[in-house]
Amino acid sequence: MKIAVFCGSSRGNDESFAEAARTFGSHIASQGIDLVFGGGKVGLMGVVADAVLAGGREVYGVIPESLRDRELAHPGLTRLDVVGSMHQRKALMADMADAFVALPGGPGTMDEIFEAWTWAQLGYHHKPCALLNVNGYYNELIAFFRTMAGAGFLKAEHADMVIVEERAEALLAALRSYRPPARKWDPVSPAPGT
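Above: the chain's sequence. Below: its structure in token form.
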């Protein structure tokens, strides 16, 4: 199994974020899981990659050429794919991964997990998407999912597609037991007699 992890290219202002990334990387390695990530040596990206490598597992990075050229690429990966754009990066990561997990991060992390979730909602893939909710980092985002559903812009079952856990062990168990709902635009059977 390969998990794509989206997370910050910085470490944040609380050491608990880096500790959670380190713990998550160590845990997935101990479970025989490989990592797909953005290829950087900086921030939480570097922390989680180092933990997986230290645990003896494979780590696959995907980085745009412009970021590699700024010497941000992690030097010790199993494989580093250099691509031409962020769009290509996300597409290749999506193809390589069996699941998607967002650790704390900024707009890039949101872009990546939201795109993976949108593709799952539309049925382009059936892979689970998850948030590791470190110290309540995603609480307001989770509340906004309910706002979207309440306003009629998101079906409740699609809001519930996103797995939310605070601990690595629980998150991995949820990824393994995930069953996707029906795709957003699947036809609905007509009611009897109509």
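Residues 62 and 92 are 7 Å apart (CA to CA).
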